[in-house]
Amino acid sequence: MLSDIVRVPTVQHALLISRDGLSMGRSASVTQDDADRISAVCAGLQSLGHEAAAQLVGTGSTTRQVMVEFDGGFLFLVAAGPGAALAVSTSDQVDAGLVAREMQQLVARVGEHLTSPPRKETTTP
Question: Which position among 53, 60, 86, 105 has the lowest Cβ density within 10 Å, counted as fewest Cβ atoms?
């Protein structure tokens, strides 16, 4: 599933993350340790995007995408169902519109598999 997005020119890595920062899937180019660290960072970025939208537009606003530009590339985060997101890193030569479109198509195609339901509290006897 993630191999589709990694085939897009200039895409380097792809991750599926949960809202609470857990790695749910990764492209072959990402080690498990890196996936765990990047997932935590992405969850923080998602949270900041959500809070920025709430402060600027109101609490009913939904964050659809977060993009970070850095020396050498970009990081795109797209909501992928309740409690999940798709993260893609690219080089700085990216066609941002193409990557965004491919990410949305991937989410639309397999979105129901990209959800991470909220954790349920358990009581101990």
Answer: 60
List helix spans (H) across 1-125. Answer: 2-6, 32-56, 96-110
Phi-psi region of 83 (alpha: psi -120 to 50; beta: other; left: phi over 0): left
Per-residue confidence (pLDDT) for residue 77, from 0 to 100:
95
pLDDT of 124: 62
Nearest 5°: phi and psi at 82?
-60, 120
Single-letter amino acid code for the residue at 101: R
Question: pLDDT tens-digit profile of 51-98?
Answer: 999 999 988 888 889 999 999 999 999 988 878 899 999 999 999 999
Domains of the chain: 1-113 (3.30.450.30)
H helical segments located in 22-75:
32-56
Residue pair 121/31 in contact by the 8 Å Cβ criterion = no
